[in-house]
Amino acid sequence: MDRKLDIRGDVHNIINANNVTIHLEKEPNRFYNRGAKGLLHRSLEKCNHFKKFTRNSLFSEYYFSMAEIDSCFKNEPDFIVKYKPNGEEFYLKCKFRTYLYRGHFDWAREDQLDIYKEFAEETGKPVYFALGLGGCADDPDRVYVMPLEKMACKMKLQQLEDWKIEELEDIFKIIRGIK
Predict the structure, then answer these.
(1) CA atoms of 96 and 84, how far apart (whole Å)
(2) What is the pTM of this model?
(3) Are 91 and 68 in contact (CB under 8 A)?
């Protein structure tokens, strides 16, 4: 008779075991309930975490004031942002992706991008995108801020690198149009 330990440390007796069968009991993910409603909830949670990260970590309260726009299910920006030193306002849309899909940051369809362009034209204010990639939505591995004019529906990592945010000064350069 052989003995084995399972993952929890319990001892089991085995008689002439030649095959090993592993049964893992996975605890249900609190964000994932089977079906579309659970996936939507998980997606909204990530969205909210990245918005909070953007507001608290990217755009310093000392230089920016941000007002959230109710746009969870619309193709409209998430925030209206005021740059305090000169009073200029712009819109900001936050998008987070855990990974590149087929080598691209894939975030929208062409018709959705067109809606953002129409929005910018109607309001007369610039629209920027805060893009988070990798890690967790509340602490992404990489963050980029791009103007609408430079956005594409699917972008390779090389296209994003010029817009990478490593310090607050990078954001100032982008909104001043220096990049």
Answers:
(1) 26
(2) 0.75
(3) no
Instruction: Supply the DSSP string of 66-131, one letter for each residue.
Output: EEE---TTSSS-SEEEEETTTTEEEEEEEEEESS-BTTEEE---HHHHHHHHHHHHHH-S-EEEEE
Residue 36 has φ and ψ, to the nearest 5°, of: -65, -35
- In this structure, are residues 152 and 172 in contact, taking their beta carbons and an 8 Å threshold? no
Predicted pLDDT at 31? 46
Side chain identity at 35, as an amino acid letter? G
Residue 72 structure tokens: 């969870």
C-alpha 7/C-alpha 83 separation (Å) is 54
55 HSE (CA, 13 A, CB side): 14
Distance separating alpha carbons of residues 111 and 168, to the nearest angstrom: 32
- Residue 146 host element (H or E): strand 139-147
Please name the helix (run of DSSP H) or strand (run of DSSP E) that holds residue 159, with its range, or none.
Answer: helix 157-161
Residue with tokens 């990530």: 46
In this prediction, residue 71 has a pLDDT band, given cuts at 50, 70 and 90, of low
Q: How far apart are CA 169 and CA 173, in angstroms?
A: 6
